[in-house]
Amino acid sequence: MEKKHIKTVVIGAGQSGLAVAYYLKKNNEEFVLLDSRENVGNSWRERWDSLRLFTPSQYDGLPGFKYPAARGTLPAKEEIADYLSRYAKKFSLPIELNTKVLELNNTEDDYEIITSKGKIYANNVVVATGTNPSPYIPSFASELNENIVQIHSSKYKNPHSFPASNTLVVGAGTSGVEIAVELSKTRPTMLSGKPTPHIPDFIFRYFGRLYWLFAYYVLTVKTPIGRKVKSIVTTSGGPLISVSMNEVKEAKVEQLPRLKGVENGLPLLENGHIVSVSSIIWATGFKPDFSWIKFDVTGENGWPKTNRGIAEEFEGLYFAGMIFQFGLTSGLVGGVGRDAAFVVNHLHKRYKK
User: Fold this and answer.
1) What are the angstrom distances between the C-alpha of 26 and each of 126, 128, 166?
2) How far apart are CA 136 and CA 195, in angstroms?
3) Start-end of H helices in 27-160
4) What SS3 class is residue 45?
5) I need a surface site. Which of 169, 243, 248, 254 has the fewest CB within 10 A?
6) Are the CB atoms for 85 and 65 separated by under 8 Å?
7) Which domains does the chain have, with CATH numbers?
8) pLDDT reported for residue 271
9) Which residues, other chains included, contact 167 with Cβ-Cβ below 8 Å and sequence gap of 6+?
10) CA-CA distances (angstroms) from residue 98 to 28, 37, 159, 256, 319?
């Protein structure tokens, strides 16, 4: 049987994968996108109901198609999902949905992609699985009393879908703060964690363009301040945007220190206090998971070793949409285009030598 071979395979049809596909098509490359979901944009639809982007609509477009909304509006998750679906149709991007990638192997001649629908071989692979590959929950969570309901923030939908009892939200980043404030309207709520720095709303409202230009062009791996910010973001999370700890106080959410473990089946805080709760939402972020790549591409931090998305040790292997791949905006809808263009330009030049 003749094996199925495609010049370039893009794994993931989220915003970064779509941006890569746009440039591949522009360069007349042979390629296909693979995605495990039923529809383009579903990764956004699966997130909590009230979620909105914190970047104004004028900074939320992918290459070649401006986001269709009035300036200054903050798109809801469903609107972003619809936009991504329209984007794929507008440019007639070749996408194979309901196709989960199980393994990526590096063979002597090419790359072998084992999917839920069979094998594909490719000269190039672009991994565009996004900034949230795998939800992170501390290992000690398994020691909590079995009567405490636990979910990760990626599974949270709305207050009505979660037990209406005293709830602890663990993690004081943007997601944790937003969820805690929303929950406080329906039950006693606590928030555990050290808040990340807050960027005031007026910065976006009145200086939005200047702030975006600063984040886009200055906060990159090419500048000292950018490298410092990268270190903070990759270890402590991004800044609070669109919400603040003032809103937490106004919502009468009880602020607690960080969680450090479990005692007698209950959450134990850094200050030694034990918290009695009925439910917990772990807004503790995500961790990289590239275990399905069956050769060594990652560094000590679990993320692939790359130069702006170009794998350091494997020719023809690329990554897109990673946290701070080049700059602070690399993981944002409006920022993935720059990295996608860089990756595809390198890929295209390989065949022009």
Assistant:
1) 16, 18, 53
2) 18
3) 42-45, 77-90
4) helix
5) 254
6) no
7) 5-133+288-350 (3.50.50.60), 135-196+237-282 (3.50.50.60)
8) 95
9) 183, 187, 188, 189, 190, 277, 278, 279, 280, 281
10) 25, 5, 30, 42, 21
Residue of 288, 291, 353, 350 whose CA lies nearest to 317 = 350
Q: Residue 279 and residue 267: Cα distance in Å, rounded?
A: 11
Task: Count the Cβ atoms, other than its own, within 10 Å of residue 182.
Answer: 18
- 349, burial (CB in 10 Å: exposed 0-12, middle 13-18, buried 19+): exposed
- 62 HSE (CA, 13 A, CB side): 25
CA dist 349 → 24, 33, 104, 321 (Å): 12, 21, 23, 21
| Token duo for residue 130 | 């996004």
Radius of gyration of the chain (CA): 21
* Average pLDDT, consecutive stretches of 10 residues, N- to C-terminus, the chain (353 residues): 85 97 96 97 93 89 96 93 98 97 94 96 95 87 96 95 90 90 96 76 58 83 88 70 80 96 97 96 92 94 93 95 91 94 93 61
Token pair for 183:
């929950």
DSSP one-letter string for 123-176: EEEEE---S-SEE---GGGGGS-TTSEEEEGGG---GGGS--S-EEEE--SHHH
- The first and second tokens of residue 139, run together, are 């290992």
Which amino acid is it at 27? N
Looking at residue 67, its amino acid is Y
